[in-house]
Fold this protein.
Amino acid sequence: MAEARGFSLLERFELKYHIPVAWADMIGQMISPYCEEDYYSKITPGGFYWITNLYLDSPNWTFLGWRNARLNDRFNMRVRTYGEHPDNEGTFHFEVKRKIGAIGFKSRATIKGQNPGEIFVKPRSEWKAKGEKDMKYLEEYLYKANTYNAHPRLLTQYKRRAWFSTTEEYSRVTIDTGMRFREENGWDYSVDTKYMHSTGLPKFFAPGADAVLELKCPCKQVPLWMMDLIHQLNLKQSGFSKFGNAAMEWKAIYENPRGFKRPNFTHIAGDFNE
């Protein structure tokens, strides 16, 4: 449903599977009776559009430590925008992704025409938030960032093809590929491909796979068509953390540079123009 797309708070299951990116068209055909393609996938040649996330963490990598320890209740923080070369004063989504057991919670606040870093230094009256609900979530975001001394650490990118359900309030299918990252300690979203490091590496994927399929749905409403998709493709649930994998590679590059071997970028789902 359209109203679910401009969400402020979501509670959902998130199931991840490693697949070949070449399956994208087939999956789109299989779910077409129940889903429509995302607007950005519709208008982008090949269906895959860029997502850019700036992840925050403390100097001691608090959020990463929670993830690695598999804490039952944990969260991370990021600021999302779209496009391979984002506008530093474009539209940004401040997101907190919390996980309690198998259930994921995601809150979002949106600003437009303002660099995200200004939210941390300007008074509330100068925030260019979309609405009052966004102002509330921005305040909560700042509180968490200040509590945990969280600041920008890693800028990540990947290409996504996405579908929304037309039969439930919120169900979503996404395929992500071409993951890459760089270090970022400020609020600069500019991208030079020479400085982007790949996390779309064989060590992060099951054999024969180069993409992550995610099935997302309400906790009380797992649709039957989604279960059929899992069964028909014989999907085996796996994991993939864009933040966690980028942090792992960051440590190899910056903390242990002698042991780092520059990866070969995989050209899939469109030309990266590298």
The longest helix spans residues 132-147. The chain has six helices and eleven strands. The chain has a mean pLDDT of 88. The chain has one domain: 2-259.
